[in-house]
Amino acid sequence: MDAPARTAAITSGDQATREETPRHRSAVRRAVSALAVLRTGHPAVIFALALVSGLFVSSIVIVVSTAQVRSAWGDLFTDPGTTFAVTFDFLGSAYGALLRGSIANPAAFQHAFQYPSAATWSEAFTPLGNTLVSAVPLIITGLGLSLAYRSGAFNMGGQSQLILGAAAASWVGFSFTGMPWFPHVLLGFAAAAAGGALAGLIPGVLKALTGASEVIVTIMLNYVAANFLTYLLSGTFFRAPGTGDNPVGRVTVPSATLGRIFGPDLPVNTGFIVAILVVIFVAVLLNRSRLGFEFQIAGASRAAARVAGIRQAWVYIGAFALSGAIVGIAGGVQILGVTQQLQTGFGADIGYLAILVAFAGGNRPLGVTLVALLYGALETGGLTMQFDSGISYELTNVIQSLIVLFVTAPALIAGIFRLRQRERLT
Question: Is residue 416 domain-resident?
């Protein structure tokens, strides 16, 4: 190659290098930025680390509480290989059962692919369906409570609003016979929302007009509603005939029953669609409406609300009423789609768990939905873990509580892993 050709080749190579270098540097910067997110308090990072931390501590509890694994650790220094093999086999079996019971069983999917039919595919998706059924009332109730919390109103009365919403939906469900399905279901949900709104209005009005503590009022209303439910099931027309010493409510007629979305073999009913609509409604209300903006301003700063001309009393009343209406819809979903009738103790677990779900989800629609799905998965998968691995029911509850504990403590996770605070634009 002569000198001019070599010079041209070197020049073209330098030019190509100059063109590729900015692209290369840009790719490197993006990779570094992505890795830097892992060292910040990003919600997704904290959520993942919380799950890992909860599973790690739960593993220690399983090892200490299980005689088989505990005895294997007695031979740690004489036969460490067997000790670790027994430990990891048992933990793998336990957490594998948790996944099989909450999300999917690989063997069931393999069988469905080999012998495809409605029955095999329903069997494969049943664990996920059970998780969704458990999560739906927590999603709706958690969103209703979070709406009040974002407004500065501490609504602790999820149980009372669930009960009144369910009672109203149940009355519509068994009283109006001969109606078409869609109008009957809509009427049931309207009654559920009205019942929940009524339960929410009481503490809202008392707070706005008298300054009464909404925390105390809503907690006491939970007891009032629980006893009112007992009265309905023991001495009124709500009680189903011939129930003996264990009274239950009258059964919802078929025209008011929420049908199953994916066929009769999967448990997911149209309440799942209602939950999606509630998530969208709350997200739009908070982020795209004047009312939601006023609620959040009042919840963030009363002084700012006064300057903006927002009346705090009306915020309390409106937030409690709307929060109660959404929670009442959750009661309607349970009555019309799951239990089909009122029962004593209805709503007690959901009402208090939803408070945890709302705060763990940051009182935001997406966060509340994810935490509710997590708890639904832990609840349904815990049963499979108990049956397949021999872990006691009490221990599965401890494991679920530990995982949820870490998820609800982002500051603890940030401190353990020394995460930097996220930089905010000013």
Answer: no
